[in-house]
């Protein structure tokens, strides 16, 4: 009885891996896995002229805003 449970426990992970690893035919046909091509599923165009400036300005604003708010809260009159 104990050896049978060990056998089942040893066989279970490979069965789960084998069962979960599946793929579909369209994924093999397209190198990007969707017919529209790369960069079609994002809401902005990274190929524009000023994309890098806009991107880093957005990131700097998002990173610096909490620090700016903290400084403002620290120095404001109570």
UniProtKB/TrEMBL annotation:
Pathway info: Energy metabolism; oxidative phosphorylation
Main location: mitochondrion
Function: Component of the cytochrome c oxidase, the last enzyme in the mitochondrial electron transport chain which drives oxidative phosphorylation. The respiratory chain contains 3 multisubunit complexes succinate dehydrogenase (complex II, CII), ubiquinol-cytochrome c oxidoreductase (cytochrome b-c1 complex, complex III, CIII) and cytochrome c oxidase (complex IV, CIV), that cooperate to transfer electrons derived from NADH and succinate to molecular oxygen, creating an electrochemical gradient over the inner membrane that drives transmembrane transport and the ATP synthase.
Protein name: Cytochrome c oxidase subunit 8, mitochondrial
UniProt subcellular location: Mitochondrion inner membrane
Subunit structure: Component of the cytochrome c oxidase (complex IV, CIV), a multisubunit enzyme composed of a catalytic core of 3 subunits and several supernumerary subunits. The complex exists as a monomer or a dimer and forms supercomplexes (SCs) in the inner mitochondrial membrane with ubiquinol-cytochrome c oxidoreductase (cytochrome b-c1 complex, complex III, CIII).
Transmembrane as UniProt keyword: yes
GO CC annotation: mitochondrial inner membrane; respiratory chain complex IV
A single BP term in Gene Ontology: mitochondrial electron transport, cytochrome c to oxygen
Family label: Belongs to the cytochrome c oxidase VIIc family.
InterPro entries: COX7C/Cox8 (IPR004202), COX7C/Cox8_sf (IPR036636)
Keywords: Membrane, Mitochondrion, Mitochondrion inner membrane, Transit peptide, Transmembrane, Transmembrane helix
Membrane topology: Single-pass membrane protein
Keyword Glycosyltransferase: no
Membrane-spanning intervals of the chain: 55-75
